[in-house]
Amino acid sequence: MALSEQLRLLVQEVIAVDYREDLKELLALYHPDLVLLLGNGSGISHADVLALREWPRSVWWLDDDGLERPHPAGGDAKLAATQRLEFCSAYEELGAASSEMIVYPVDPDIYQPLPMKEEERADYLLLDDATPARLRWLQAMRRKHPRAKWLAGGKGWPLESVPAAADPQSRARLLNRARAVIRWSWSGTLLYEAAACGTVPFLKTLAAEPVPSNESDSCVRFRTLTGLARRLDAFERLSADEKRAASSRMLKASRFDYSHVPVLLQLLTTAFK
Fold first, then answer.
1. Which pTM was predicted?
2. Is residue 203 within a helix (H) or strand (E), and if so which, with residue range?
């Protein structure tokens, strides 16, 4: 709903329909310039796949950041929009003509700074499961920064464990508990969700993705545990005002750089270039 509302600010006409309707009839009726398929959890009928393949206009399939593997239906798209960089080549191998990484924006009415009790707050939230190497890394960090409070959102950590945040409201409250979150597994939407909450994400950068040289980037990137330790040490040396300034940059980015309109402009530019 949010995408269609914002898209109406950019184009002449937007028609939102339920996929259960016959796509072939809808294409003949509306003759759209762009067919945008949102979500791919339910699959698509063979008849509609054939109708879309014959349609001369751009076709997009926007996948879910929570998918562990590319959805096979994404290979039927002429242009597959994915939220995961490693899925780009996979969709093309499945048959998509091309694919682009375009991360789905978050709802700022849900992901926003929330009032939290002092006893709920922490400095760092670990959102992946522990491994022997990560446990050794945590021990070193706790010795180096003894005042920092840690929470565990994954399994196997010798820390206070927080329940899994299944729904968006719970996830927003979880992100608000910490000043920063640390993830080793890539999650594109986490950057947007954390930004909207004013929480700084430390995210592992994929080998195929360059590490930004500009430290004003609202996301702290790392490739190795040693690199993560250096980034965390630098973050700990920031003053309270500097940390608040970092959160303010996150909030500003979530309202402008990471909002629906820039993401949709990116999609339209890519579709019609």
1. 0.75
2. strand 200-204
